[in-house]
What we know:
The complex is a heterodimer of chains A (115) and B (110).
Chain A: E1 4-6, E2 10-13, E3 19-25, E4 31-38, E5 42-51, E6 54-57, E7 64-70, E8 73-78, E9 87-94, E10 105-106, E11 110-114
Parallel strand pairs in A: 2-11
Antiparallel strand pairs in A: 1-3, 3-8, 4-5, 4-9, 5-6, 7-8, 9-10, 9-11
Chain B: E1 4-5, E2 10-14, E3 19-21, E4 24-25, E5 34-38, E6 45-49, E7 60-64, E8 69-74, E9 83-88, E10 104-109
Parallel strand pairs in B: 2-10
Antiparallel strand pairs in B: 1-4, 3-8, 5-6, 5-9, 7-8, 9-10
Amino acid sequence: DVKVTQSSRYLVKRTGEKVFLECVQDMDHENMFWYRQDPGLGLRLIYFSYDVKMKEKGDIPEGYSVSREKKERFSLILESASTNQTSMYLCASSLSGTGGVYEQYFGPGTRLTVT
Amino acid sequence: AQRVTQPEKLLSVFKGAPVELKCNYSYSGSPELFWYVQYSRQRLQLLLRHISRESIKGFTADLNKGETSFHLKKPFAQEEDSAMYYCAPPQTDSWGKLQFGAGTQVVVTP
């Protein structure tokens, strides 16, 4: 069974804290994604990784960074959390192929609250 | 860049009635289009993809390249169809990425 797991379901942090969100997939997928999900805005891509140590900015990368040291793990880092980063964060993974777009498999999400 | 429009934020329908969720996109270069669904307290999951031409849970989606639309339809809505639905065509600037719409919340009432 396909599995994408995220380290926390709920997280409460204070403004200015450094926050780490971890995502692990067990499908040997090349692609991994971090989105934030907000009502009325849908899913917005923060960062995309297409291989170990390779990353690409998404639509809203400001205030975030990522790390992919191993194929199965993709971390999202909030360098200095702010209240406008309160959101649901979704991780996803997919296969990769030349010219192709593949199904993305999602984790359960992390609800982050920054106070 | 790909733009996706799901004009209805909320669709409320009665059980047994037809339901249609609209999706318009700006770039029609790829036949790969997806609909994802998120049921209450569940993770986001694939509902259907255009290229497979399957009917999943009674839903179908017609690709109209001329109108750049990919509307999702079901002839008889069921209560278990209540969920958030996202249309997701591919992004235009790199492989492997999708552009998600803002989503349509469907509520099916008995």
